[in-house]
Amino acid sequence: MNTKTMEGLSGASANMKLVNTPMRVFREAKRRGDTATMERAMGYAGQFFNKAEEYKNKAGEGTREEAEEIRERAEEETKEIIEKRKEEREKLEERIETGKETGKETDKETDTVEISEEGRILLEQNSNLYKTDYQGTKPAGYKEAVIYNKTGETVQQVQDINIPASI
Predict the structure, then answer these.
(1) What percentage of the chain has pLDDT greater than the value 70?
(2) pTM (whole model) above 0.70
């Protein structure tokens, strides 16, 4: 919190509390019918109220200044983050370019995986089982999913099911 804001809030609070004393004197003087004391008490109350108003304005000014400072800091941080990202991107592009020029990767954080000849054959066989060619024919060994009923007999699959529903 800004010092102007704190000073303004505490000053306004204190002066509003101080208004209570001359107002109490005013009420007592009014009850007695003493107009001179009433006028004096109202003068003091007015002074305290005016000071409270000044402190309130000071607190508002401090709040505006604080908001402006926060906004400026946020803009600076944003600019710093953007600049940092640009530098990181440039470094990454430079590493990629040097890797292309030398023919090998410069990034030490990447891992490589080697698949044995047997693994390649198995991968090729398994991937061909579930693929269809561009004409829609299925490769040899491909089996449709089968559904069985309670007696163990195969049941024909129904492709389109329309269920009527009313709301």
Answers:
(1) 78
(2) no
